[in-house]
Design a protein that fits this description.
single chain, six-stranded mixed beta sheet, 11 helices
Length: 232
């Protein structure tokens, strides 16, 4: 791991503010990883967001990517598309589905939040689980027909959506396992077992301004980490 995740002084790199378990941050890291974009990773604590991040992006949510010229990209899907515009060795941009991603980010994410945290939203968890299941059934049909959401190989649509399916499945794993979503469950298991996913789920300590920059070479990390290192 020393060659792929290293605390060292380095030339100016893009700075990524991230939170390991956030699905939006996960998908940004996936695109940065597959593109081979080296970044300075700054893991945050949601309860103590660093002033440098808030100065760059007052909205206060992750991910935030600050480029060396000061440009700030603060939407995860924009980070994904920018990373792939720099370098797209696996052709992810050719397997995009903006409408499906919008359905994930809109109605499905709303159902996910209200299923997982019904007390926060004064919501009926069962109702939102059923609504979310309808979207999962749509995804299952796509995967059964194509192999992945955007085609025979994983692409941008898969990376943009898989962290949210992962989170939905984990709310009640026993219930999810009982659902007739065989193609989707295989797709999810394969993605979560991949070296790429393991690489973006590395565990690091929360960033402090006094820290030596933590430079991450995602492609080397993917080659160095076994799938079981991905964690929860």
């Amino acid at each position: 791991m020393a060659s792929s995740t290293t605390a060292r002084l380095s030339p100016v790199l893009p700075v990524l503010y991230s939170f390991r378990r956030c699905p939006y941050a996960m998908r940004a890291r996936l695109a940065l990883a597959v593109s081979g974009t080296e970044v300075e990773l700054r893991e945050i604590k949601l309860s103590a967001k660093p002033e440098a991040m808030l100065a760059a992006s007052p909205k206060g949510t992750v991910p935030v990517l600050v480029l060396p010229d000061g440009t700030v990209i603060e939407q995860s899907i924009d980070i994904m598309r920018q990373a792939l515009a720099w370098h797209d060795p696996e052709g992810w941009l050719g397997r995009d589905d903006p409408a499906l991603i919008a359905a994930n980010d809109g109605p499905f994410k709303s159902d996910l939040d209200r299923y997982k945290y019904p007390e926060r939203h004064d919501a009926d968890a069962g109702l939102h689980r059923a609504s979310g299941l309808a979207f999962l059934q749509q995804l299952d049909r796509l995967v059964a027909a194509k192999g992945n959401l955007g085609g025979a190989a994983p692409g941008l649509a898969d990376a943009a959506i898989v962290p949210f399916v992962r989170q939905f499945a984990a709310v009640d794993a026993e219930w999810f396992a009982e659902q007739p979503l065989d193609s989707l469950k295989r797709w999810l298991a394969d993605y979560l077992a991949s070296p790429l996913f393991a690489a973006i789920m590395l565990r690091v300590s929360p960033w402090s301004p006094a820290d030596v920059p933590l430079v991450v070479n995602w492609r080397e990390a993917a080659a160095a980490i076994t799938p079981s290192d991905g964690g929860a």
